[in-house]
C-alpha cells in the first residue's frame, strides 16, 4: 500500500526533475483539465446534485463553466504571466540584467471545502499548474460524491507524477499537514484556519487562507426596491444559501424592512413558486450536521417568511427573520444556509458602527441609489471585497483579487492573482565580471571620496510631484 510519504516523495522528485516547469507541460495540463470538465460534464452534474441537490444552472455558472473559464483565461495569459519582469535599475547596476523571475514554489497542498466543491478545489489548482508547481489536492469529505468522482477523474487527466488527490477528513488532513509542503492553500472555516496556520508554521510554510464569516448587507433608505429584492434574494438563496459570499444579514431601518420583506416574498414566489420544496431550482443542505446546526439558528427573532423544514430531505425553506437581536444565535456564527435575518438600525452611521465592531468580513454589500452613501460605506469600512447594489458578482471577475482580510482570510486568488500566489518572486541580477573599476569603489580601504561617489551613484532622487508633504 502506498502511504502519504511515498506519494509525496514521488511528487517531490517530479518537481525536482523539472517536469512541471516547462511552458508546454503547464499548457498541456491546463488543456487536460478543460477536457476533464467537458468530457465528464454529466457525471459532474450528477454528483453535485447528489451532494447538494445543485441544479444544472447553478452548477454550470458557479462550478463547471466558472472553472473552465478560469482555465481558458490562464491558457490565454500564461506566456505573459511567466515572463520575467524587468525592473528599474540604479546607476551601479546600469550594465546588468535586473529582473523578477516567477519561480514555482514546489509542492503545493490545496485543501478545499464543500459548498462549491468543484470550483473551490480546481480554481486554485489552475493557478498552481500555470505557475509550474506539483500539487496535492485534498477535497472535502463533506461533499463526498463530488470528491470521490474528482479523485477518480483527476489521475486520468493530469500527470500522475506531479498531481495527486487524497481523500479524507480532519484526521487525514492533519496527518498530511505534518509533512513539509512549499505552500498550503486552505478554504474553509476560521477555526480550522488556525489549525492550518499552526501546522504550516512548524515548517515555515507560506499559506493562503480563504475563510468565511458573516457578510453584512446594508440597505439604505435610498435603495431601489425591485433590483434590491431580486439581487438579494438570488444571492442569499443561491445553492440554498451555502455560499461564502452570500449576504449573511441585512441592516436597515424598520421603514426599509416594511418595503423590503414583501418584495423578497414576491421574489421567492417568482423564483421558486409557492412551495420551494417542489422547485427544481432550489437546493438542499449538505448534511445532517449542518441541517441541525441551521435548525438551531431558526430560534432567533421572528420568522416572517418561510421557516418550513423537512429533515428527511434536509430541506429548509428560504427563510427571512425579523426582530433579530445582535445576541441571537443566528448572529453569533456564519449562517451558510437559507436564512436571512434582518437587524434594524436607524442610520448609515449606526450600520457602519455595527459592521466595524465585528470581525472584518469576506464581502460587504450596500444597496443605495445615493453615491454618497456608497462612497461613505466604502471609505469607512474594511472587508475582503465590496459590492454596491448587488452581491457575489465581485468574485466572478478574474481581474479582481478574491480573498478575505483578518478573520475572513489571508491572501487572494483568481486569474493572475492565483498565478502570483503560487509563484515566488525571485529577485535576480545577472552581472558580468567586467567593470571592476566601478565596483572597486565599494571595497576597503574605505575613504571619503569612495563614499561620496557611492552615495551619489545609489542616491534615489526625489521626484518633483505635488504629493510631497510641505
Ligand atoms: P469542511 O468541513 O469541508 O472543511 C474544510 C477542509 O478542512 C476539508 O477538506 C476538511 O477535511 C478539512 N478539515 C476540517 N476540519 C479539520 C481539522 N480539524 N483539521 C484539519 N483539517 C480539517 O468545510 P467548512 O469548514 O465547513 O467550510 C465552510 C466555511 O468555509 C465557511 O466559513 C465558509 O464561509 C468558508 N468558505 C470560504 C470560501 C472562500 O473562498 N473564502 C469559500 C467557500 C467556503
Supply the key terms.
470 residues; alpha/beta; Aldehyde Dehydrogenase, Chain A, domain 1; Aldehyde Dehydrogenase, Chain A, domain 2; 2 domains; seven-stranded mixed beta sheet; six-stranded mixed beta sheet; 16 helices; 18 strands; binds nicotinamide-adenine-dinucleotide
Structural description of this entry:
- It is a single chain.
- With 470 residues, this protein is an alpha/beta fold.
- It has two domains: 2-211 and 412-424, Aldehyde Dehydrogenase, Chain A, domain 1, CATH 3.40.605.10; 216-397, Aldehyde Dehydrogenase, Chain A, domain 2.
- The protein contains 16 helices and 18 strands.
- The chain has helices spanning 4-17, 23-39, 41-52, 56-82, 119-130, 144-157, 170-177, 190-202, 225-237, 254-272, 288-297, 348-356, 371-380, 416-421, 436-439, 448-458; strands spanning 85-86, 97-104, 107-111, 134-138, 163-165, 183-187, 207-210, 216-219, 249-252, 302-305, 309-310, 315-316, 319-322, 339-344, 363-367, 385-388, 409-410, 423-430.
- The strands form four sheets. A seven-stranded mixed sheet has the order 10-13-14-9-8-15-16, sandwiched between helices. The chain has a six-stranded mixed sheet with strand order 5-4-3-6-7-17, sandwiched between helices. A three-stranded antiparallel sheet has the order 1-2-18.
- Helix 6 (144-157) links the parallel strand 4 and strand 5.
- The mean pLDDT is 96.
- It binds nicotinamide-adenine-dinucleotide.
- The site of nicotinamide-adenine-dinucleotide (NAD) has 28 residues, from helix 7 and helix 8.
Amino acid at each position: 500500500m502506498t502511504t502519504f510519504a511515498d506519494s509525496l516523495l514521488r511528487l517531490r522528485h517530479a518537481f525536482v526533475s523539472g517536469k512541471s516547469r516547462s511552458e508546454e507541460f503547464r499548457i498541456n495540463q491546463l488543456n487536460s483539465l478543460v477536457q476533464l470538465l467537458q468530457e465528464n460534464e454529466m457525471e459532474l452534474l450528477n454528483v453535485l446534485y447528489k451532494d447538494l441537490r445543485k441544479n444544472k444552472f447553478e452548477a454550470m455558472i458557479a462550478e463547471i463553466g466558472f472553472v473552465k473559464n478560469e482555465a481558458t483565461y490562464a491558457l490565454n495569459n500564461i506566456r505573459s504571466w511567466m515572463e520575467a519582469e524587468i525592473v528599474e535599475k540604479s546607476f551601479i547596476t546600469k550594465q546588468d540584467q535586473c529582473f523578477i523571475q516567477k519561480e514555482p514554489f514546489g509542492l503545493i497542498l490545496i485543501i478545499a471545502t464543500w459548498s462549491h466543491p468543484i470550483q473551490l478545489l480546481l480554481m486554485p489548482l489552475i493557478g498552481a499548474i500555470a505557475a509550474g508547481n506539483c500539487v496535492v489536492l485534498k477535497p472535502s469529505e463533506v461533499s463526498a460524491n463530488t470528491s470521490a468522482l474528482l479523485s477518480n477523474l483527476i489521475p486520468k487527466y493530469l500527470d500522475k507524477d506531479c498531481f495527486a488527490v487524497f481523500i479524507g477528513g480532519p484526521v487525514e488532513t492533519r496527518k498530511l499537514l505534518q509533512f513539509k509542503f512549499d505552500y498550503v492553500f486552505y478554504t474553509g472555516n476560521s477555526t480550522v484556519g488556525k489549525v492550518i496556520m499552526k501546522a504550516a508554521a512548524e515548517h515555515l510554510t507560506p499559506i493562503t487562507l480563504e475563510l468565511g464569516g458573516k457578510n453584512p448587507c446594508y440597505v439604505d433608505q435610498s435603495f431601489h426596491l425591485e433590483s434590491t429584492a431580486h439581487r438579494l434574494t438570488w444571492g442569499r438563496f443561491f445553492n440554498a444559501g451555502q455560499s461564502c459570499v452570500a449576504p449573511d444579514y441585512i441592516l436597515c431601518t424598520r421603514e426599509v424592512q416594511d418595503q423590503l420583506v414583501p418584495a423578497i416574498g414576491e421574489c421567492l414566489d417568482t423564483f421558486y413558486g409557492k412551495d420551494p420544496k417542489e422547485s427544481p431550482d432550489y437546493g438542499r443542505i449538505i448534511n445532517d450536521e449542518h441541517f441541525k446546526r441551521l435548525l438551531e439558528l431558526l430560534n432567533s427573532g421572528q420568522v416572517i417568511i418561510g421557516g418550513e423544514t423537512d429533515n428527511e430531505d434536509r430541506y429548509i425553506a428560504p427563510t427571512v427573520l425579523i426582530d433579530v437581536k445582535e445576541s441571537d444565535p443566528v448572529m453569533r456564527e456564519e449562517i451558510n444556509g437559507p436564512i436571512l435575518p434582518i437587524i434594524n438600525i436607524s442610520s448609515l452611521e449606526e450600520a457602519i458602527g455595527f459592521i466595524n465592531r465585528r470581525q472584518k468580513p469576506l464581502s460587504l454589500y450596500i444597496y443605495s441609489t445615493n453615491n454618497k452613501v456608497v462612497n461613505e460605506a466604502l471609505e469607512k469600512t474594511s472587508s475582503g471585497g465590496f459590492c454596491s447594489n448587488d452581491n457575489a458578482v465581485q468574485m466572478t471577475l478574474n481581474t479582481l483579487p478574491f480573498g478575505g482580510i483578518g478573520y475572513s482570510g489571508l491572501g487572494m486568488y483568481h486569474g493572475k492573482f492565483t498565478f502570483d500566489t503560487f509563484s515566488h518572486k525571485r529577485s535576480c541580477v545577472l552581472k558580468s565580471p567586467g567593470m571592476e573599476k566601478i565596483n572597486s569603489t565599494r571595497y576597503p580601504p574605505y575613504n571619503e571620496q569612495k563614499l561620496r561617489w557611492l552615495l551619489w551613484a545609489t542616491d534615489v532622487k526625489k521626484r518633483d510631484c505635488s504629493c510631497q508633504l510641505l
